[in-house]
Amino acid sequence: MIWYAVIAASVGCYLFKLAGLSVPERILRDPRTRRIAALLPVGLLSALIATQTFSSGHHLTLDPRAAGLGVAVIALLLRAPFLIVVGSAVAATALLRLLM
Amino acid sequence: MLRDAGGIALTSGAYAVSCGAICTAAGLTVPQTLALSLLMFTGASQFAIAGVIGVGGAPFAGAAVAILLGGRNALYGLRLASLLNVRGARKAFAAQFVIDETTAMAVGREPERAGRLGFWATGFAMYALWGLGNLLGALGAQVLPDPEVLGMDVAAPAAFLALLAPRMRSGRPWLVALVAAATALAATPLLPAGVPVLLAAAAVAVLALRLRDTGDAEHPGDGSRPDDSPPEEPAPEESASHHAEPRNSRRPGGGSPSEEEVR
Q: What ranges does the record list as Basic and acidic residues composition bias (chain B) (predicted)?
């Protein structure tokens, strides 16, 4: 099942890349297309962050992951590099679980 | 130019290690992780499918989110089409390399030959190091004990946050982000895992269209203003119309978080 999803998603992503090189310019130049393309990643990423931090199965939860995400926010505000942002969030979450 | 390409590839190699680790921690096998990095080869989408599977979502819901996130590569391809001027088999090959980093290294270079070199050099270097990094991360995460105890379940959201941050420079992305997060959380108790994210995407699409309508009403006849893209977009809107302007000076070999933006 996962293999099929991996293949399907890879094909879909590839077709988007190929479409950009192939489709007539005016279709992708449409302001509506561009606005959706600019805002959709923002919406998808925030939805992914929200569900993966504040839910567990079908329940909304507040657990050490939220603290880890808070640490990531601080790291980002301090302009830390990517690996430090992720690493500090992971470390803070693990530490808090150890203490709880 | 080649040093820049190598620098960007090395930076993303480190990013690839965390991507591979997150994928296997989410429950993908090492071959699946490697297949994602070689076949999909667009980082944010790889994180997304792993993230959805990791929280127990349907693999195909994860695939749909990954494909939607990959949609922006079509806009990069649009920018690169005339520069690369490739056809047939070469185009099919070049398409796989159409991602944030290669676009940033190619668009706006003068002469155009340098732009093409930037695209291909960055593409080959990144493809090799991206696959290697993912493999190392995947193998590394395999030897770890329970990923949840180690806090690995927060790695994906933290990575998403780092990808999101450069886009949050104005009010509109904040509005969109809040609507999407609220929609997804509200739907979580009701829908299968992964589907709330798709619902949020639909809400954002509707919202984006409505935002445009009000924008046009406020600025009649100004609908083509390219203001809908955040300033940190790797290949900014205005670069298409200012090819003569060298844009490469702000990319010293890769390393600032903004270069690690959604891939």
A: 214-228, 239-248
Tens of pLDDT, residues B168-213: 888 899 999 999 999 999 999 998 888 899 999 999 999 988 885 5
In a 3-state reduction of DSSP, which class is residue B242? coil
Residue B69 has its nearest CB partner, among A41, A64, A97, at A41
B215 domain-assigned:
no
Interface of B with A in 51-80 (CB under 8 A): 51-56, 59-60, 62-80
Residue B127 placed within a domain: yes
pLDDT of residue B260: 37
B216 occurs within a structural domain = no
| Global pTM value | 0.75
Range of the domain at B64: 2-169+230-241+253-260
CA distance to B62, B140, B141, B142, per residue, from B145 (Å)? 25, 11, 8, 8
∠ CA B25-B29-B30, nearest 5°, is: 95
Q: Structure tokens of B46? A: 């790889």
Q: What is the C-alpha to C-alpha distance for residues B48 and A6, in angstroms, rounded to an integer?
A: 11
Please report the pLDDT score of residue B253 as a whole number: 37
CA–CA–CA angle A23, B213, B74 (5° rounding): 20
- For residue B52 the two structure tokens come to 């959805």
Q: Tell me, what's the pLDDT at A83?
A: 84
Decide if B182 is inside a domain: no
**Residues of B numbered 86-115 whose beta carbons fall under 8 angstroms of chain A's beta carbons: which are they?**
86, 91-92, 94-96, 98-99
Q: Under a CB-based contact definition with an 8 Å cutoff, are residues B168 and B162 in contact? A: no
pLDDT at B147: 67
pLDDT of residue A14: 97
* A39-71 burial: b if 16+ Cβ within 10 Å, else e: bbbbbbbbbbbbbbbbbeeeeeeebbbbbbbeb
ipTM of model: 0.90
Residue B24 tokens, joined: 């296997």
Number of domains in chain B: 1
Q: How far apart are CA B105 and CA B103, in angstroms?
A: 5
Q: What is the pLDDT of residues B215-244, one digit of tens each?
A: 433 333 333 333 333 333 444 333 333 333
